[in-house]
Fold each of these.
Amino acid sequence: MRRFEVALILVAALAAGFTLYLWKVRPPWFERFRYPLHYSAILVERARANDIDPSLLAAVIYSESHFNPTAESRSGAIGLMQLTPDTAKGIAVRTGGTAFRLSDLTNPAINIRYGAWYLHLLLTKYGDERMALAAYNAGQGNVDRWRSAGLPVQFPET
C-alpha cells in the first residue's frame, strides 16, 4: 500500500472511532450541538411561570415542531408547540387575551406562552406526565375516552 492509502485508512478509522465515542459517551457539548435549544430565554421563562420543567417544555417543542415556528400539521396545528387555532383561541380567552389572531401562533413568544399554559393545565388535570403528554398530542377527549374504557394510548404517534 502507498502511504496515502494507509493515511486515508487511518483517518477513516479515527473518524469512525470518534463518532462511536460521541454516540456512546454523549458529552454535553455534543448534545447541545445535536439538539440546539432555540428560544431558550422564552422557554425557561414560560416553564418557570407555569411550574414546568424547562427540559420537558423543550422536549414537547422538539417533538411537535423541531423548533420550527412556522410548522403546520395536517390537522391544522401551527407553530412551535403545534396548537390548533381553536385551542389557542380558548387559551387566549382564558388567560385574559381579547384579540387573538391566527398569526399569533407563529410568534414564538405567544406560542410558547399558550403551549406552556396548556401543558400545565393538562399536567394538573391528569396528575400524570404520560397522560398529560398524550392529551397534549391526541386531545383530552381521546385520552378521557381511553382512560374510562381502561385502554392504553391508542395512537401510535402519541
Note: The mean pLDDT is 88.
Amino acid sequence: CEINYIDALTVDYSKYKYDCIITSPPYYNIELYNNTDKRCKADWIIWYKTLFTDIYNNLMDNGVMILSINQDMYNKVFNPLFGEPFAKEPLQINDSKKNITNYKEFVYIWKK
C-alpha cells in the first residue's frame, strides 16, 4: 500500500483502475482538514464539481461512489452532477454539528 499526500485536483485519475470511491469531503468551511484553507462557498462548489466529475468519469463501469456529505452539498452540487443516488442512508450527527441549524448528513451511493 502506498499513501501519497498531494492535491486531489492534480491527480490524473485516468491512470488508475478503481471500482469504488468512499470519502467524506470537506464540508465547505464547517470542517476543515489539515492544510485546507478557508474559501467562499462558490469556490468550494467549483472544487467539488471539478474533482468529483473527474473521479466519477474515471470510475470503472458498475463501480460505486459513496459520499458522506451534508444535504446542502447534495442539493447544490452532487444531485445536479450525478442525479438520484442508488441508495441514501442517514448518518448519525456528532455533538459538534448539532448546533448547526438545519444540518442533515447522509451517506449517498451512486452506481456508474
Note: The first helix runs from residue 41 to 57.
Amino acid sequence: MATIRRLQPESDVDALIALSRAFFAEYEAHHADFFEIDMLHDADIISYFSQTVDAEDAATFVAVQDARIVGYITIFIKSQAGYWKIKRVGDISGLMVHKDYRRQGIASALLSAAVNFARERGVRYFTVYTAITNQAAIAFYEHNGMKPLYVTLLGETGYPSTEAR
C-alpha cells in the first residue's frame, strides 16, 4: 500500500512534473479543443505546486509506493463571497494516480488526506471540478460520498479558433 505524505519540493519535483503532464494529457481527451494544452513548462508545474508548500490554507499530498511518487492531490481552502453563510470551502484542484497504480485505494487515501486537511481547518464542505465525460472520476467521487452541486455549461461565441490573439 502507498504511503501518503505532504509534498517535499526538494525531492518530489521530477515525479510531479511527469504525473502532471500525464494528468493534462488525459484531460485533453475529455474535450479536444477546450482542454487542449498550449504551452506547459516545467516551471509552470513547479510554481503551481510550490504555492502549496508550507501554506496554511493549501496543501499537496503525494502517494509513495515502491519508492516512487505514484499520485498526488492538491487542495486549497478558499473564501466565498461574504453574503454566503458558508464562508470557506475546500477546493480540490488536482487528483492524479499513475495509470499502473490505479484501483488500489490510492486515490481514496489521497482524497481522505485532503478532506482531513480541510476538516482540521474548520472547513465543512469541499468541491472538485471534473469533465462531464470523465465518468471514471465522477463514479469515484460519488463512491466517496460526493454529490453533484452545479453544472458548468460550455458555449461558443463563433470566434475563429485558428486566429491568433
Note: The chain has four helices and five strands.
